[in-house]
Amino acid sequence: MANSARTSQPQQSPSFAGALSVDQLYQTAFYNGRTPRSQEYKAGARMALEHRIERKDFDMPYQVGTAAADAFFAGIEEGKTIWRTAAAKIGGAA
Predict the structure, then answer these.
(1) What is the pTM of this model?
(2) Which residue did the predictor score with more confidence, 4 or 57?
């Protein structure tokens, strides 16, 4: 897939980030019975969680300007929301 966009350094994650699991948050968010989302959308959400929890760089796997890229970007936004919600629940500031 075409373009590759990376961020230099993720923002500092709070010290409690290690207590949160990408898989746990992802599975909770995308439970069976939820309104279905595309694989691209879910990949974006997972990437946002990996960025915050595992300090991974963002890697753009889709051609910018395509529906797949748009879904991916929307998923990143949900991933950020999942992170903020989880952080608030355990008493951190996100």
Answers:
(1) 0.77
(2) 57
Amino acid at 25: L
**Backbone CA torsion sign across 6, 11, 79, 49:** positive
Cβ pair 76, 27 in contact under 8 A: no
Each residue of 55-92: pLDDT tens digit? 999 889 999 999 999 999 999 999 999 999 999 988 76
Residue by residue, DSSP assigns 22-65 as HHHHHHHHT-TTSPP--HHHHHHHHHHHHHHHS-PPP---S-TT
Q: What is the mean pLDDT of residues 19-40?
A: 95
Distant-in-sequence contacts of 22-26, Cβ < 8 A, 24+ apart: 22/46, 22/49, 22/50, 22/53, 22/54, 25/49, 25/53, 25/82, 25/83, 25/86, 26/82
